[in-house]
Amino acid sequence: MSLADWNSRRERGMQDALSAMSPDYFMYHVNQSLLDFQVAGKRVLVVGCNRGRDCQPFIDFGAAEVVGLDIMSEIGVDFTHERVRYVKDTVEKMPFENGAFDFVFSFATIEHVPNVAAAFEEIARVTKFGGKIYTIAAPLWCHREGPHWGAVMNFEPWIHLRFGVDEIVDMVAARQASGIAENTISESSIRYLMTLGNMNQVRAEVYTDSCARLDKVQILRNELQSDQFPEEHRGIIDDLKKKGYTEADLFSMTHLFIANKIAD
Fold first, then answer.
1. pLDDT for 201-251, tens place per residue?
2. Domain 3-142+197-261 classification at class level
3. What's this model's pTM, rounded to 2 decimal places?
4. Backbone dihedral region of 186: left (phi > 0), alpha (psi from -120 to 50 degrees) or beta?
5. Residue ranges per structural domain of the chain
């Protein structure tokens, strides 16, 4: 496969994954992030802004400037505004000065970042003293519903930890051909989401440990939000534990990090 073909498939996979995210879930976290913080007149950074719509709520709430950061080629194409600018770069090494932003927000992005620790270090670095950080990573790699494909894979919990990508493609194709698949997912999406570098494939504790080590932050929440033990899948869980996965890995759906930037 040529590089151009791979990039094209990667973009299609990314768009399919993003379209599966609920706008209500996004706005819930926007509203939660602003319960005790006013962005009116402030500088806001949206890490993982996608095509730009993720920046709009902060403009609506009166932010003086919103900067959207993403690595995707179509960054910002869906939302333009005189107080919004877009930067195509990685969160692991952002081209911003220390303390450049009053508020840093990230939704369903850190789970794609290869170096989670570097991402959180950079987020803390570019937040000014007295500023706020709010990040939600979801879903985490080891969760039973897998990486951003949700209910479409419910027929095989933890399918991505138990089978190879070619096996998954064949299983999904067979279900779709037989007409028993309630939802569909493209082969390009499966291959995109199963490729290291598109989802980071790290264990749940990497998120909490990375945040716990940050300097000059007052941590308000640094937690893994988990499902209950699904008794009907006990056999699968036991097999995955034998491979080294923990219950925290297997049941943690999201990581929520909320912090204030403080001086020494």
1. 999 999 999 999 999 999 999 999 998 878 889 999 999 999 999 999 999
2. alpha beta
3. 0.87
4. beta
5. 3-142+197-261
